[in-house]
Design a protein that fits this description.
Distance between the termini of chain A: 42 Å
Number of domains of chain B: 1
Radius of gyration of chain B: 22 Å
Order of helices and strands of chain B: EEEHEHEHEHEEEEEHEHH
Oligomer: heterodimer
Number of domains of chain A: 3
Helix content of chain B: 25-40%
Shape of chain B: globular
Strand order of the largest sheet of chain A: 1-4-5-8
Shape of chain A: globular
CATH architecture of the largest domain in chain A: Up-down Bundle
Order of helices and strands of chain A: HHHHHEEEEEEEEHEEHHHH
Largest sheet of chain B: 7 strands, parallel
Number of strands of chain A: 10
Largest interface: A-B, 13 and 9 residues
Largest sheet of chain A: 4 strands, mixed
CATH superfamily of chain B: HUPs
Number of helices of chain A: 10
Strand content of chain A: 5-15%
CATH superfamily of the largest domain in chain A: Butyryl-CoA Dehydrogenase, subunit A, domain 3
CATH class of the largest domain in chain A: Mainly Alpha
CATH topology of chain B: Rossmann fold
């Protein structure tokens, strides 16, 4: 059952209609086979991203002056949710891609925006967001990747990047890598942000991680071996990297919250449909209150997940602070996704535990949403710091 | 080249379609509707012709109730230039003959009497009669070139490939002409968000029967050449018969099939 949506504009509703059509015709028919294949051969759904890009769905939230479509987060996130209800890996990809342009749209100079954004937002390109390192996950301040300045005295003219980034979505497939690296030793205040083109000499990639799910979201290490990056590709001031990374993550968390909501919605739809068809003791299993109430709790979880991310989105769209609300949304929606997908497997019983139904895949895909873009423990840290200050 | 594409707004085949109790016409209020998928191919082909020529305009024409504006909207989002929506209470219940009459007058009015190329899908996805293109061509006095799976526009001509069960025919007609296309001819594009925004500014004309000089007695349920006497839902599929093989499975299967007159 399609989610009930109250869109703020007619064009927002048109966008949802367009997204649903593309999901039905292009994503849903492919997802099962593609996820299974990617688990074996690490294939990547480039064509699907091209289709989304052509339709304009890869650059919805960015301002129109930069080649985006100027859509409020309230609309953009519901598009992400619709995509997730069809194909979680792709929705995560859309969210990550959006994250990669955020530093430039928010902190770039007009010259940088003019030089970089037309291509980044063209719909033909895909970005990667390179923040985490093997030894620097939640603790971003401990990163060791370095950007060594070049040029004699005064402002640097170029940098050389050296180090290793981990858990990078789209690595090896992306057209550019939004990379955070250390320009001084002052822990959190020593980080800077760079947009590194994929063809920069010295970038190499590890073998794709063998993950539990989300197979079409290729994740690898990115290695920087003295990669030259022009100073014009440094976004923001030296040392501003941490602030840029965290600002992008606030927005990115909303993308993950929306995607988790869509994933939970499809698990609920699957379970509700199955419960009304599956007969035991001469009646549908949904006729048992014990099971019907499970479905009711799933619906309540999905609806409240959606409400939390929409609340944060509306604050963001109104230019208000939304960091706490984004953390609440990410925590609520991803925990809901884990519970709802687990319950969906339960409703389907033995069938839910097999690959004949997508319930088990949903459950595997839900787990990572509690981990990436800030573990849910980090979200609680963010929330409690806001509440207890 | 200026092209008129005739499109239809149909009930979504995915939803539960039904007929109205009062007059046994298709209930279009109770279900979601959309641009008939078979018409998307005609819109796509028209857009490709105009894009390749670098000049010309695609006009989308529909006859239908208020909601049929959504079919025009979708075609405009795909890239068509303008829309014509013929809507009139009296049209309700019209059969194919009356529909083709309204379409013909609307095509004339939209093109100043001289259409260059009129395109349609091969049939609607709801009525699935497939006769309107031929009737429309007849009323307009145009060559009818139907079931095109490939189309080339030449100097004053249009050439199509029609795939039959046993052979493919190549058919050429002089322009102006009417062409109906199959679902083999192309892969319709999705609208883009840019297209969605652009569509809002495109002109859509609203005409009634009076604008087309058609008398209400020529259309509608009462003017239809056929009438629907009763409507019966297709019975739910009955459970199949299971033949347990006790050594005589083959002959019992044959018995069953013979009983159903399959063999």
């Amino acid at each position: 059952m399609a989610a009930t949506r109250l869109m703020p504009t007619e064009e927002g509703q048109d966008l949802i209609d367009l997204t649903r059509e593309i999901c039905d015709k292009e994503l849903r028919p492919r997802v099962d086979e593609a996820e299974r294949a990617a688990a074996r051969d690490e294939s990547f759904p480039t064509e699907v991203f091209r289709t989304l890009g052509k339709a304009g769905l890869l650059s919805l939230p960015q301002p129109e002056e930069f080649g985006g479509y100027g859509q409020p987060y309230e609309v953009y996130l519901q598009v992400v949710e619709e995509i997730a209800s069809a194909w979680m890996s792709v929705a995560v990809g859309v969210s990550v891609h959006s994250l990669t342009a955020h530093p430039v749209t928010t902190f770039g100079t007009p010259e940088q925006q003019q030089a970089l954004l037309p291509e980044m937002l063209s719909g033909d390109q895909l970005g990667a967001y390179c923040l985490s390192e093997p030894l620097a996950g939640s603790d971003i301040g401990s990163m060791t990747t370095r950007a060594v300045a070049e040029g004699s005295g005064g402002e640097p003219t170029a940098y050389r990047l050296r180090g290793r980034k981990a858990w990078i979505s789209h690595a090896g497939h992306a057209d550019y890598y939004t990379t955070f690296a250390r320009t001084s030793d002052e822990e959190g205040r020593g980080l800077s942000c760079f947009v590194v083109p994929a063809d920069a000499p010295g970038i190499t990639f590890g073998t794709p991680e063998r993950k539990m799910g989300l197979h079409c979201d290729t994740v690898r290490e990115v290695m920087y071996d003295d990669v030259p990056v022009d100073a014009s590709r440094r976004i923001g001031a030296e040392g501003q990297g941490m602030a840029i990374a965290l600002a992008a993550l606030d927005a990115g968390r909303l993308g993950i919250a929306a995607a988790a909501t869509g994933l939970a919605q499809s698990a609920l739809d699957l379970a509700a449909g199955y419960a009304q068809e599956r007969q035991q003791f001469g009646r549908p299993i949904a006729a048992n209150q014990g099971l019907a109430f499970l479905i009711a709790d799933m619906e309540a979880a999905v609806t409240s997940a959606r409400a939390t991310y929409l609340h944060a989105a509306r604050l963001k769209d109104a230019g208000r602070a939304y960091s706490k609300e984004a953390a609440v949304a990410k925590l609520t929606a991803t925990d809901a996704a884990m519970r709802v997908t687990t319950d969906a497997v339960q409703v389907l019983g033995g069938a839910g535990y097999t690959e004949d139904f997508p319930a088990e895949r949903y459950m595997r895909e839900a787990k990572v949403t509690q981990i990436f873009e800030g573990t849910n423990q980090i979200q609680r840290l963010v929330i409690s710091r806001h509440v207890l200050r | 080249m200026n092209i008129v594409v005739c499109v239809k707004y149909v009930p979504d085949a995915q939803s539960d379609r039904s007929f109205r109790d009062s007059d046994r016409t298709v209930d279009r209020d109770g279900v979601d509707g959309l641009l008939s998928e078979l018409d998307e191919y005609a819109v796509e082909e028209a857009l490709k012709i105009v894009e390749a020529a670098g000049e010309g305009e695609v006009t989308v024409l529909t006859v239908g109730p208020e909601a049929a504006a959504n079919a025009i909207k979708k075609a405009l989002q795909m890239g068509a230039d303008r829309g014509v929506h013929v809507e009139d209470e009296a049209i309700h219940g019209s059969d194919a003959a009356a529909t083709s009459l309204v379409l013909a007058e609307a095509v004339r009015k939209a093109t100043g009497g001289t259409p260059e190329l009129v395109m349609t899908g091969m049939s609607s996805t709801d009525g699935v009669m497939g006769v309107v293109p031929a009737m429309l061509a007849e009323r307009l006095g145009l060559p009818q070139v139907t079931y095109a799976s490939e189309l080339t526009v030449g100097e004053g001509t249009v050439t199509i490939r029609r795939d039959g069960d046993t052979a493919s025919e190549t058919i050429e007609a002089s322009l102006p002409a009417l062409v109906s296309v199959t679902d083999q001819i192309n892969e319709p594009r999705y609208p883009s968000f840019k297209g969605i925004m652009a569509a809002k500014k495109k002109p859509v004309e609203q005409w009634g029967l009076a604008d087309l000089g058609i008398d209400t007695s020529q259309v509608g349920l009462d003017a239809a050449w056929t009438s629907v006497v009763s409507v019966t839902k297709r019975p739910p599929r009955a459970q199949g018969q299971i033949v347990a093989d006790e050594g005589d499975g083959g002959s019992r299967l044959a018995e069953f099939l013979a009983g159903q007159k399959f063999i």
